[in-house]
Design goal:
alpha/beta, Glycerol-3-phosphate (1)-acyltransferase, globular
Length: 226
């Protein structure tokens, strides 16, 4: 990709974040509960966050320290972010083109699902971690409809146990109110907070189920996580 194209997609990602923060007169802030400091490490890192809105990725990316943004790669659905099928309406083709470009070029996403089964996806993410990337994923696999944390898919635990990487849970609140599934444009005067919580590391002989339970507890709302 040319330098001009990289700059274009970088500006798009920045515009989404600042559009939410400034264009809607909203507050967007990070709270460090141990996780932000851990991002400065050179160790393999897996960021896991709850998922309530399409705004989550822009918020999380925008709040990460600049020094580590170049290492971060988001996990995204190859089906959801594929180009529109031939013959689709112009609006759908444009929206899918934009989503595809943002995913691949602004957020450097690794596309999983589709023809990649679960184990092959984990192998792909394992390789990325070993090459120095910080992987960011939403282990629920989809946006929450009611704001509650849904069941977590096993991929995050498999990746953490298989690589020994540091897991940084991030609890995001406020994006569902700002941009719920039913809206294409965010509401005004939102309060969005991303809490970077204490890092987790898989324990000796810990099962996927046990680690997933600890991750889920770390992604609980503030009043339930204590």
């Amino acid at each position: 990709m040319s330098a001009l194209a990289r700059h274009f997609w970088s500006v798009c990602a920045s515009s989404i974040y600042h559009g939410l923060r400034l264009g809607t007169l909203s507050t967007v802030r990070a709270v460090d509960e141990g996780g932000l400091e851990a991002l400065s490490s050179d160790a393999p890192i897996l960021i896991v966050a709850n998922h309530q809105s399409h705004a989550d990725t822009a918020v999380l990316h925008g709040l990460l320290p600049k020094a580590c943004r170049a290492r971060v790669r988001f996990v995204a659905s190859s089906v959801r972010f594929a180009h529109a099928p031939p013959g689709s309406p112009l609006r759908e083709r444009f929206e899918r083109w934009l989503l595809h470009g943002l995913a691949l070029h602004a957020y450097r996403s690794i596309l999983v699902g589709g023809e990649l089964n679960g184990l092959r996806s984990v192998d792909t993410l394992t390789d990325a971690l070993r090459e120095g990337a910080i992987i960011a994923m939403y282990p629920e696999g989809t946006r929450s409809r009611d704001g509650r944390l849904g069941p977590l898919k096993p991929g995050a635990a498999m990746l953490a146990i298989g690589t020994g990487c540091v897991v940084i849970p991030v609890r995001i609140d406020g994006t569902r109110e700002a941009l719920p599934k039913s809206l294409h444009f965010p509401r005004l005067r939102n309060r969005v907070i991303a809490r970077f919580r204490e890092p987790l590391v898989a324990r000796s002989n810990e099962t996927h189920t046990e680690l997933l339970a600890r991750i889920a507890a770390s992604l609980a709302p503030e009043e339930l996580s204590r």
